[in-house]
Amino acid sequence: MTNMNDTNLLIGLLDPGYSGGHGFDNLHFRTDIEGTTVTDLTLTDLGTAISYFDDNVLDYGLWKDLISTDNVLDITFYFDLTEQHLGEGFNTNFIVGASVVPVPAAVWLFGSGLIGLISLAKRKKA
User: Fold this and answer.
1) With CB atoms 3.0 to 4.6 Å apart as the test, which of 9, 72, 94, 97 could cross-link to 60 if both were Cys?
2) Where are the transmembrane segments (predicted)?
3) DSSP symbol at 6
4) Where are the alpha helices (DSSP H) in 1-126?
């Protein structure tokens, strides 16, 4: 991994599943990072929940902006499911990782154009 200062914290939501006819009555999903709530979502529809948790990546920005002074990153997931019928349920998988922040294409394009202008100016002087 590269320097912590240029990597983003990513949480992947993967492969949701359910049992029974409708999965749940109420689903509350919350993520806290260092004691601050960064995601707070309540769902009552199975289709919406499956869409949200199916291969969705939550990007919380740079590690350096999130990690505490003790160099420990505390992430807490709350997954609260309310259901009144026997045999109903919902599940999903999580993966946490880091990704290098990509340099936007516009920066590369601007840089190559600037180099081209500088080389053109040098040719005119010569």
Assistant:
1) 9
2) 94-121
3) G
4) 46-53, 105-125
Burial class (CB in 10 A: 0-12, 13-18, 19+), 18: middle
By residue count, the chain amounts to 126
Domain that holds residue 60: 4-125
Amino acid at 3: N
Give the H or E element holding residue 88: none
Query: String of b and e for 72-100 (b: at least 16 CB within 10 Å)?
Result: eeeeeeeeebebeeeebebebeeeeeeee
CA distance 42 to 103: 34
Instruction: Give the count of domains, the chain.
Output: 1
What was the pLDDT predicted at 103? 56
Q: How far is CA 7 from CA 57, 63, 74, 79, 110, in A?
A: 15, 6, 17, 27, 23
Tokens representing 45 are 């529809």
Tokens 């990690």 sit on residue: 67
